[in-house]
Amino acid sequence: MENNDPVGWKKLTSGYPWFGSEGRFPLPAYSEFMPSPKVGLSPYGDLDKFLFNDDDPYGWNVSELEEEGELKPGMEHIGRQVMHYLSKLGKGETEYHISGHGGHNLKDNPYWPDELSKYAGKLEHERYVVFLPFALSRTQDDKGRVRWTLFGGSEQGPERVFWNSFKSSPDQDIPEKESLSFIIRILANAYGEKVEGQKQLVEAGFRILPHDTSINLPSWTKPFVINQETFFENIKYLITFKPFGQLPEKVKSHYIEGKLALLPFPGSLVFWGMPTYQKLSKNLPLAMQIPLLKLIARHSGHGGIRVPQAGWLHEPHPNGNGKQIEIHKELVNDTYHRTHRWQRIHRHEDELLQQPRLARLIKVFFSTDLETMGLYDKPMARNCQLWTNEFDLIIDGPKAKRADIVKAETELAKGGLFGYRFLFPPMCVGRHEVFWHRPMVAYLSKQTNEFEMLTESLLGYMTAYDNENVEIAKPIELWPRLLQRPIYLKSLHFFDSRHDHYANQTAMNIMNLFDTWQMEGQKPLARFYARHLIRIAKHETLEQWLDSFAEKAKDLESAKLLRKEIENIIEPIDKPLELPDPITYSTTAVRSFEEAWWNDIHYLAHGQFINKDNADCVQDEITLSKVPHKHRDLEQLGDYLINRHREAIAKAGMEGKAFCGELPFEWRTDFSFDVFGGWRRNQEKHTYERNILVVIPGKNRNEAVVMGDHYDTAYMEDIYEVERGGSGARISANGADDNYSATSTLLQAALVFLQLSKEDKLERDVWLIHLTGEEFPSDCLGARNFCQALIERTLKLRLDKDQSIELSNTKIVGAFVMDMIGHNKDIDQDIFQISPGKSVQSLKIAHEAHIANLLWNTKSHKWNKSNERQHLSRGKRISEGQQIPEIAKHLSLFGEVRTHFDPHSSIYNTDGQIFSDIGAPIVLFMENYDLHRTGYHDTHDTMENLDLDYGAAIAAICIEAAARVATKKRF
């Protein structure tokens, strides 16, 4: 009888959805717990067809950019560090990084027994051949970057990973010729042994001695497999993963005498024989990853593989007493360079090269005092694992509860020596964590006597574990498939990066075009759209960019080939631009809209609402002495927004059809933040957090288009930071740009969509949502609650204490989040960003936003010829005492479609990232974000920093984009 149970990645995605009830899909703040990236199948239900192929259930696609830009250089970088320590071990040099404090990692270690270690430094024939398996996965960081990350050595052990490297599925070996060529290459390069084919390998004395008999060896190994009873006199090269202490005596003596080479080098296996970490693994299933990780320096992953920090910290005993412990200072690293998502650096830059923000680890893990946290930090205990010097687990951060955190802090406060690793959870498909076990192949070259690495010779395999019950012995297995698409490889290898502003800029532009073409069904891309998808100088045309290939490419033929490939997926240059009629511009491209938009911003930023951060008011003396009053104004501001929308509904005659209410919730955290007044009052039930939602009906009540903002503001850096003349007080910014430029847009959008609904033009609902708590310390609080309710299907709109509307069955087909749309960058004017999330649907609605932008630009030429605007020049910002800028010409704006290839996409720094994380279709509308300008999180976020004509135009384009999605019959 045929077994039809799912296998491979299809088994990972079975059981969807697993989270359809309250509390099943928590979304913690990035600043409190960096969660795993959700890949393969998004929580919102889209299968990633770039990652998985229907006809290949065991395959996991790895893109060219991942392999060439991260994995190969990363394996090389990490491998050289490992080989440094392994060679020191083999040479008998003191190496605490492997042996640990007091040599505890090598005591009773069967891979490095005394009978072998006493010969360290005397084995001159040793060529240090290693097949060292790294445990890799993809993780995300506070900049929203998802990168391959080193977790350490493989918890599956080196033998299983090595032999699975010669397979492509559980029952399928890779070609024998390919396997044998790998062995032949190793013997030639490391030992100078020149052989060809199976027969000569046998004659040269190459053999295999298995250790774990449960492993199914590939078929090509049969002529070489031996056992313990074999006569070893004629064997010169032996692949075995047996501990040295368990090898036949003849093998041991021949190895020590230089008559036989052991592959791999016995010392490279010590990580899997450490009794210390074996003990720890009883309570921490993946602990065998850790010893190898401790050899590698922390790395951001910029141009390689991300490496989290691991090591030892020493806390003095409070009373000066305590058990005396042998400590090697070389192993102690008790400080941490902190980073956060609000840093003023670009995503393509390495934040670890910036001025370090070092803090003691015990404070990094647990402290909630204001001085330690500063403006943008929170304790990181949830993203760490800690254990004692006796290797007893203290805390497994990702699985910890509040009580576990308190207990761990108490334990460290007693003093002592503690091991740790920062752990940012691996990528998940459904409920399964996925690791790639990839061998690092290296050896001491016979020709150069230098260490050489074969970074792509063995690819290993992948395992997936249920994240609630990790069973190392029962993984779901998959195999990596390196994509070898010619155009992608050529774009990565045929350009001189000196011509680019950031690494692989030209290549990523090309790959972005081809990815977009694939996601849009391989239909030719419109030339205007293609131009907006690539990142080049504002005034450079698509044709000029293509012409530049001749200069940038390493040879002229490659340039011609790449250009031809691109032109094949783009519409002909002579095809006329065909645009639909606009839907909303008759309402928004007028002076009355501009004035209403401006006046709303002014009232929200400079009116009666002062303390507008969710944490207000902070309970420290300096802050309380500076704030105008000691209560939070978000409650009153929320009431104002609800009343405004309800008035608009009544004025439109839509009462009983359209509704405005609140989505209330609690502020839940793993730590107690008693110093934050807003948090404390929430815990004491004096107040609650809430998103404000307007529901405007369309014909299909089961679908909705969302427009969103956030209505809280940030603390002002220049008021807080002493080096900028600040006092340390946490005072809320006015928020004219961040983010009342967006809130005002929603107030105006309500009028537009109520009218469209009344005229029966909406094919689906429109939801206007004012999200709370985007800024620190609440950190996308409202977006997280909203997205959690979407996934868990618990969304209800409360109209008053007795009446609510069920919304849990409505599907979001598009969401447009606006954050900072009013500041026109001085040195690069009239650009804004249309930044989609990672889903295919996100790109589709970004295309609609692009069309809305083209419509605006096309029509603005006509509007500027009207009597009202004829002969007007571009507008100016207001000066002191001026209330509103004078009427000016409409600006033609350039909306750059910044996909995940674009390091200048700012979606990670907004609520939009939360929507993207769950796989919801999302586009961020944002100005051309200037990292270093005044007016961001400071005292200058006022009307004087806004460009009325620029901001009102973006507002109008966003409304038009949402209308285009809301009025399409099918989307």
**CATH architectural arrangement of the largest domain:** 3-Layer(aba) Sandwich
Instruction: Provide a count of the helices.
Output: 30
Query: Level of helix content?
Result: 25-40%
> How is the CATH topology of the largest domain named?
Aminopeptidase
When the domains are counted, the total is 4
Task: Catalogue the unreliable spans.
Answer: none
Overall geometric form: globular
Mean pLDDT across the residues is 95
Description:
By secondary structure, the protein is an alpha+beta fold. Helix content is 31%, strand content 17%. Strands 1, 2, 3, 15, 16, 17, 18 and 19 form an eight-stranded mixed sheet that branches. The protein has an eight-stranded mixed sheet with strand order 20-21-23-22-26-29-27-28, sandwiched between helices. A hairpin with a 4-residue loop joins β12 and β13 (393-396). The longest helix has 27 residues, at 64-90.
In short:
The chain has 971 residues and is α+β, with helices and mostly antiparallel strands.
Tell me the layout of helices and strands.
Layout: H1 8-13, E1 59-62, H2 64-90, H3 96-99, H4 114-117, E2 130-140, E3 146-153, H5 158-164, E4 167-169, E5 172-173, H6 176-191, H7 197-203, E6 206-209, E7 237-240, H8 249-256, E8 261-263, H9 275-280, H10 290-293, E9 310-315, E10 335-337, E11 358-360, H11 361-366, H12 370-373, E12 384-388, E13 393-396, H13 402-413, E14 416-422, E15 428-429, E16 432-444, E17 451-454, E18 461-466, E19 476-482, H14 486-493, H15 505-519, H16 527-533, H17 542-547, H18 549-552, H19 556-567, H20 585-588, H21 591-606, H22 621-626, H23 634-651, E20 659-665, H24 677-683, E21 689-696, E22 700-710, H25 717-720, H26 740-758, E23 764-771, H27 781-792, E24 796-800, E25 803-806, E26 811-818, E27 831-836, H28 840-863, E28 894-897, H29 912-918, E29 922-927, H30 948-967
Parallel strand pairs: 1-19, 6-7, 7-8, 22-23, 22-26, 26-29, 27-28
Antiparallel strand pairs: 2-3, 2-16, 4-5, 9-14, 10-11, 12-13, 12-14, 15-16, 16-17, 16-18, 18-19, 20-21, 21-23, 24-25, 27-29
Helix pairs in contact: 14-15, 21-26, 23-26, 26-30, 27-29, 28-30
